[in-house]
Design goal:
Elements (H helix, E strand, L loop, with lengths): L24 E8 L2 H6 L1 H17 L2 E9 L11 H11 L5 E4 L2 H4 L3 H10 L2 E3 L9 H34 L6
Parallel strand pairs: 1-2, 1-3, 3-4
């Protein structure tokens, strides 16, 4: 059937993928920004599931999954208990890499994200590029800037909505 469509047999993988390299030890990192998101657990569960799936696909052993619940991505890594713990475990050799669902889960400050990825091996489930290559670092730089821009726009909209509520006499706080 493949040959009738002009495909050669080498185009089709007939056996399941089997990871043959050394197994890396990963720490899964989860983050949600609000207490409501933390209480519902849905965002954390979705992140956990995606990270577990990616680690299984890559052949990585998850040694821990650490969450920052109700913590803004604008906070520096050192000011987030979960991320600080994960990075400390990697620096002591307990794990080899940090795995997060998306870049904005690591942070929304471009400099913080870029510094973190310079000192720690990071894998992002929705960003399959190799962050150690020049092209991967360039794309990461652009996406980190976009995450910071998004944070700034969210802050502007929130301030404008709060000012309008105050103008209408609604107490916020």
């Amino acid at each position: 059937d493949h040959e009738s469509r002009g495909l050669t047999s080498w185009c089709v993988r007939r056996e399941p993928f089997v990871h043959t390299g050394p197994m890396k030890r990963a720490i899964g990192y989860l983050r949600v920004s609000t207490a409501e998101q933390a209480l519902s657990g849905l965002g954390l569960d979705a992140q956990r599931s995606a990270i577990e799936t990616e680690c299984a696909r890559q052949g990585w052993d998850i040694v821990a999954t650490i969450a920052d619940e109700g913590v803004s991505g604008s906070k520096a890594p050192a000011k987030r208990r979960g991320l600080s713990d994960a990075l400390a475990r990697i620096s002591t050799g307990e794990a080899d890499l940090l795995v997060a669902l998306r870049l904005d889960r690591l942070g929304r400050d471009a400099v913080d994200v870029l510094n973190l990825t310079k000192t720690t091996e990071v894998a992002l489930v929705d960003f399959p590029a190799d962050l150690t290559t020049p092209a991967g670092r360039m794309v990461l730089t652009v996406l980190a800037g976009a995450a910071e821009l998004e944070r700034g726009l969210i802050s502007e909209r929130t301030r404008a909505a709060m000012a309008e509520a105050k103008r209408r006499g609604v107490h916020c706080g």
